[in-house]
Amino acid sequence: MAETRARSRGGSRTSGTDLVPELLETIRRRIAYGLGEDRVIRRTEAAIRKGTAEFSSLADAQEQLGKILSGSLQSVLTWETLPEGKLYYNIASRTITPALQEGYRISNSWAVEVQGRKYREAGLELQPVQAAWPEERIRAVASAAADRETLEEAHILIDQAVRNITMSYLDDFVAANAAFAERAGMEATITRTTDGSCCPWCDALAGTYVYGEHPRDIFLRHNNCNCRVTYTAGRLMQDSHSKRWYSAETQNAMDARELGSLQPKTWEEARAIEQAMEARETRLLTARREQLIRSMMERDQVSHRRAANRLTRGSR
Predict the structure, then answer these.
(1) Full-model pTM
(2) Helices (DSSP H) in the chain: which residue ranges?
(3) Which one-letter DSSP state was computed for residue 245?
(4) Sheet holding 187-193, edge to edge
(5) Would you tell me which of 64, 182, 280, 296 could form a disulfide with 307, CB atoms 3.0–4.6 Å apart?
(6) CA–CA separation, 163 and 62 (whole Å)
């Protein structure tokens, strides 16, 4: 029955040989070709090289990347190339997983470049944190695709899941780096935007939130979801007396109010005020550096001395 159906759809290969290496090579070539031809991705990579790319443009590139990965898989995993026209788990796992791994590598390389530049522009000697590889989720996609009764149903699932997961790579990167920024004593904010034609669930999540006060589901997305999730991390400084953390803008405003309340009458008084402000700034910067060191100690499981040396060198 299966062979008859396969022949009626143009024929298929038998299951006697390992077809995966050839299939995977073709998939990789089509991914590479798609990346080189896509205008959005080319424009985004040019902006990354120039140092002008933002997370919003990365989201547009992610959407195109997901389409390229999905299209490459569907165009290769066909009745003509699969044994008996069936996408067995052994084939699904060994083709879908590498394709998504390539997407993960590309996505994180873009995000690391953009976030690293933002840290440098803010004068922070930090390295971006890559999100964890979603191994269980990828395995579940391969298993679900293999369980579909028809290849057409498998293609539908691959299209939806691959594009969704590819978009979530950036979401996961944002979540990981926002958490790291918050632990490092910076003010991280999360922004979720819609394309104006989203479902009520997405509309309810749209907005800008301080990390830690954001909705629990802000990093989640359903199939065919086009929401964008980005974040910003502002520099924070800790008051050595109150132990409260303030953004640089807030601290500058506080300092301005304090200076405005003082009316030095002599050069000596003016110099004393200036020295007091310099000393306060030194204390704040020292406290912020210590917070960054302790965050790196927790993240990398290293000693205080090693974390301090890494921070000084600006390396991970």
Answers:
(1) 0.66
(2) 2-8, 20-37, 39-50, 55-76, 89-121, 135-147, 151-183, 200-205, 248-261, 267-300, 304-313
(3) E
(4) 207-210, 187-193, 228-234
(5) 296
(6) 9
